[in-house]
Specification:
Elements lengths: L10 H29 L5 E17 L2 E12 L4 E6 L10 E7 L5 H5 L2 E2 L1 E7 L5 H10 L5 H12 L5 H10 L2 H4 L3 H25 L6 H19 L4 H18 L7 H14 L7 H19 L5 H24 L1 E2 L6 H20 L7 H8 L6 E2 L4 H14 L3 H20 L3
Parallel strand pairs: 3-5
Antiparallel strand pairs: 1-2, 1-4, 2-3, 4-6, 7-8
Helix pairs in contact: 1-10, 3-4, 7-8, 7-9, 8-9, 9-10, 9-11, 11-12, 12-15, 12-16, 15-16
C-alpha cells in the first residue's frame, strides 16, 4: 500500500498556496467593497432581502413605554442588517421584501459584519418559496408548534425562537438542531447507501470501466450542493461541504486527509472566497469541532477502531463544553447526557426524514415532547472569555506536544468539575 503524502512538501508549495490565497482574497474583498460603495453611494438605497428573524422589543423613551419589532435581514447581495418596524407589522419571517434603507455612514467593517439601518418596507412578496412550501408540509404533520419548529430547523435551517434555543442549549444538544457538518455527514451516508447497490448492478452490465468511488462522490456532492443552496448556504454547512470537496480531491491524489494542513487549507479557501464568515460564530464553532476530531484521531493513532468509536463522543463533549458555557452560559444536570443524545441522533435523523416523506413525521412527537419538557433546573454559569482562550492555546500546542495534550485533558476535566459543582 502506498503511503499518503503531506499536502505541503516544501516551503515553496506553502508560499505558492499563500500567493493564491492572497489573490483570491483581493478579488473577494474588491467585490465586497464595490457593493459597499454602491450601498452607501446615495442617502438611501433599494434593497431586496429575506427576513431571517422578527421579534418584539420594549424600551422606555421619554418616560413612556414603547414597543416595536426588530427585523434581521439578509440582502440578496449577501450583507446582513438589522432594522425596526411597527409593532403592528404582521409575521413576515422568511418572506422576501423590497425595502428602502438608509444605511447612514457605516464603515466597511460594519458592512462586512452587520449593521443597523433605518428602513421603509415597500413590498412584501407573497409568492411562497420552495422552503416555505416545505415548512408548510412539515407543519401539517405535527400538532405541537414547538415540535414543528424543531423539525423545520432540522430540515430547512429555520432559526428557533430564543426560548427553544435555551431549552436545547441547556440539554447540550444545540449542535444537533442547527444544521451543520454533522448532518451533512449523515446525509452523505444515506445517499451513499441509496445509490451503492443500483450502481453496482448497472456497472457490471453497462459500464465496468467507471469508478464507483468517483461517480458516487460526484452524485453526493451535487445533491448536497443543491440542498445547501436551497438552505441559503449556512456557514457550518458551507465549511463541511468545502471540506468534503477538498478532502476527496486530496484523497484521490494520494494526499493525507486527516491532518491539520487539510483543515487549514479548507479554512483559508472558505475565508478568502467568503470573507464575511470571518465574523460568523457558527462557522468558527464548526471549525473547532472538526479541529478536535482531527486532534483526537492524530493523537490516538495505533488505537483500535472500537476504542476510537467509544472515546470520540466523550472527547468532543469535553472539548466543546467550554465553548458552550462561555457562549451560551446554560447548563443543567442533563447536559452531559448530550453524549448519548448525539449517538442516538445518528439513527433518529435519517428515520425522521423517511417518516416525513411518507407522511408519518409525528411518530417521534411524544418522545420529543418529553425531552423538551424535562425539568432541567437550568443554571446560568458566567465564565470569562479568557478561560476559553486558555483551552484554545493548549489545543493548538497539543498539535506539537503530548505534554500539552495531557495538560489540555487535565484542564478540561477541571472545567467539567467546576460546571457540575454549579448545579449540585
Amino acid at each position: 500500500m502506498l503511503e499518503k503524502v503531506s499536502l505541503f512538501q516544501t516551503k515553496r508549495d506553502f508560499f505558492n498556496f499563500f500567493l493564491l490565497a492572497c489573490f483570491l482574497l483581493s478579488i473577494s474583498l474588491s467585490i465586497e467593497y464595490y457593493n459597499f460603495t454602491q450601498l452607501t453611494k446615495f442617502d438611501s438605497q433599494l434593497v431586496d432581502a429575506t427576513v431571517l428573524k422578527q421579534y418584539s422589543k420594549t424600551k422606555v423613551k421619554k418616560g413612556k413605554l414603547k414597543t416595536y419589532q426588530v427585523l434581521k435581514l439578509k440582502s440578496h447581495s449577501g450583507f446582513t442588517f438589522y432594522t425596526t418596524a411597527s409593532k403592528t407589522l404582521k409575521d413576515i419571517k422568511f418572506r422576501d421584501v423590497t425595502m428602502e434603507i438608509w444605511a447612514g455612514k457605516i464603515s466597511f467593517y460594519e458592512y462586512m459584519r452587520s449593521f443597523y439601518a433605518f428602513s421603509k418596507i415597500l413590498k412584501i412578496h407573497e409568492n411562497p418559496t420552495y422552503k416555505s412550501k416545505l415548512n408548510t408540509l412539515i407543519s401539517k404533520q405535527h400538532k405541537s408548534q414547538d415540535i414543528t419548529l424543531v423539525y423545520q430547523a432540522l430540515f430547512t435551517a429555520k432559526p428557533l425562537p430564543i426560548k427553544l434555543q435555551q431549552v436545547f442549549s441547556t440539554l447540550g444538544i444545540s449542535h444537533l438542531i442547527a444544521i451543520s457538518g454533522f448532518h451533512l455527514s449523515v446525509l452523505s451516508g444515506i445517499l451513499f447507501f441509496l445509490i451503492k447497490f443500483p450502481y453496482k448492478f448497472l456497472q457490471k452490465r453497462f459500464f465496468p470501466y467507471r469508478s464507483f468511488t468517483v461517480d458516487s462522490f460526484i452524485f453526493i456532492a451535487i445533491s448536497l450542493l443543491v440542498y445547501m443552496l436551497f438552505l441559503d448556504m449556512p456557514p457550518s454547512l458551507l465549511r463541511a461541504f468545502v471540506m468534503l470537496i477538498v478532502g476527496f480531491t486530496l484523497y484521490d491524489r494520494g494526499v493525507k486527509i486527516i491532518s491539520m494542513q487539510t483543515l487549514f487549507l479548507t479554512i483559508i479557501l472558505i475565508l478568502v472566497i467568503f470573507p464575511r464568515l470571518c465574523f460568523n460564530i457558527g462557522f468558527w464553532l464548526s471549525v473547532a469541532g472538526v479541529f478536535y476530531i482531527f486532534l483526537f484521531l492524530l493523537s490516538s493513532e495505533g488505537r483500535s477502531k472500537l476504542w476510537k468509536l467509544l472515546m470520540l463522543p466523550l472527547w468532543l463533549y469535553f472539548t466543546m463544553l467550554p465553548y458552550s458555557i462561555v457562549i451560551f452560559a446554560n447548563f443543567s444536570i442533563y447536559h452531559p447526557l448530550s453524549i448519548i443524545w448525539t449517538a442516538l441522533f445518528t439513527l433518529f435523523y435519517p428515520i425522521a426524514i423517511f417518516l416525513h416523506l411518507i407522511g408519518n413525521g409525528n411518530l417521534f412527537d411524544p418522545l420529543l415532547s418529553l425531552l423538551m419538557n424535562l425539568k432541567t433546573h437550568m443554571v446560568t454559569i458566567e465564565i470569562d472569555f479568557k478561560f476559553l482562550l486558555i483551552e484554545i492555546g493548549l489545543s493548538l500546542m497539543s498539535i506539537y506536544s503530548k505534554l500539552f495534550l495531557y495538560a489540555l485533558i487535565l484542564y478540561l476535566f477541571g472545567f467539567f468539575i467546576y460546571t457540575i459543582n454549579n448545579v449540585t
